[in-house]
Amino acid sequence: MTDLAVPSPRNERTGVMLMLVGIGLFSIVNAAIKELSAQVSITQIIVFRNFAALIPIVMMAGTMGGLRVLKPSRFGPQVVQALLFFLTLYGYFFAYKLMPITDATAISFAQPLIVVALSAPFLGERVSAAQWTAVLMGLAGVLLMVGPSGESLNVGALCAVAGTLASAISMLQLRRMTATDPSIAILFWTMAISGAAALPLLAVGWVTPTPWQVAALVATGIACGILQYLTTLALHHASVAAIAPTRYTGIVWALAIDVAWFAVTPSPAVLLGAAVVIAAAVLVLRREES
After folding, report:
1. Contact, 157 vs 107, CB < 8 A?
2. pLDDT for res 110
3. Which of 18, 24, 14, 12 is nearest to 249 (CA)?
4. Tens-place pLDDT, residues 176-186
5. In this model, does residue 62 exceed pLDDT 80?
6. Number of domains composing the chain
7. pLDDT, position 197
8. 3-class DSSP assignment, residue 126
9. In the prediction, which pLDDT does 32 show?
10. Considering only CA atoms, which of 168, 145, 180, 153 is closest in space to residue 74?
11. Residues near 151 by Cβ (< 8 Å), separated by ≥ 6?
């Protein structure tokens, strides 16, 4: 998503710094979502988050030529992308609610590995033996984390896996869509449609929020919209290869937030599994660069 109207010239160091800041702030927003999930329903969080995020997105569109930039070439793919995003949010937000942020973040690092595994059947791309080895290695790391507390079934971990799978498929869909649609339009319709899809579920587990909770929900949504632009701006300044490794700084933020905010220390199994998944993802990245 690199076609937004952004300042020039490009500067790789600026891009990397923007992404590092974006990852850190997104980690804090995720912690706020975990905090809110104990007070209101996940559906309420998604609806407020997505519709509030439209505010900065529409403002950005106004600086790029007006609302006409939000018109998609085809509406069908926008719906598919939005529904995948809908599943991604539910998976990750339930994971944040049910397990430490470090655990959910570590499992999410398997996303690029799933993208590689699915790129052959979805996009017809060739996957090398080395890439398949990295995928299997990453799967082993995820299996280490799925039951971090030693339980035979960890619902939070399964939610994180489901969210990661939906996110990977969404990424493949996005590769196709960016060839015909501006990323600001994709971002707008993804937020709008996925938010609308959650509306019928609001009655399930509804909790009347306090004015403070409403303010927090809206602020979370606006922050997500701004941070989405910030990370897109980073991709304008620097290559994907330069930025991709910064994604793994998220585990440092997650660890710090779990310890300082929620007084939770991740298990050795989670830390070991995260290390295995990160190593596998780095192998895939290096293979794609060569």
Report:
1. yes
2. 84
3. 24
4. 887 788 888 88
5. yes
6. 1
7. 95
8. coil
9. 94
10. 180
11. none
Q: How many residues does the chain have?
A: 290
State which amino acid sits at residue 35. E
Q: How far is CA 268 from CA 47, 113, 234, in A?
A: 35, 22, 33
Tell whether omega for the bond before 9 is within 30 degrees of 0, i.e. cis.
yes
Are 247 and 109 contacting, i.e. CB atoms less than 8 angstroms apart?
yes
Check residue 246 and give its pLDDT.
76
Structure-token pair, residue 112: 């690029």
Q: Which two tokens stand for residue 119?
A: 């790129």
Hey, what are 187's tokens?
Answer: 């971002």
Q: How far apart are CA 47 and CA 65, in angstroms?
A: 27
2 within domain boundaries: no
Distance CA 172, CA 192 (A): 20
pTM: 0.83
User: Residue 87 is part of which domain span?
Assistant: 12-289
174, 232 contact by CB (below 8 A)? no
How far apart are the C-alpha atoms of 249 and 23, rounded to whole Å? 8
Query: What is d(CA 40, CA 213) in angstroms, rounded to the nearest whole number?
Result: 8
CA 243 – CA 14 distance, rounded (Å): 11
Those residues with Cβ within 8 angstroms of residue 189's Cβ, 6 or more apart along the chain or in another chain: 70, 72, 75, 78, 81, 82
Diameter of the chain by CA atoms?
55
Instruction: Give the residue ranges of DSSP H helices in 100-181.
Output: 101-108, 111-123, 129-146, 155-177
- Six-digit token pair at 43? 């559906």
**Residue 3 covered by a domain:** no
Dist. CA 221–CA 219, nearest whole Å: 5
Residue 265 lies in a domain: yes
The pair of structure tokens assigned to 234 is: 């980073």
Rounded Cα distance between 262 and 12, Å, is 35
173 and 61 in contact (C-beta within 8 Å)? Answer: no
Q: How far apart are CA 113 and CA 280, in angstroms?
A: 8
Q: Within a domain: residue 139?
A: yes
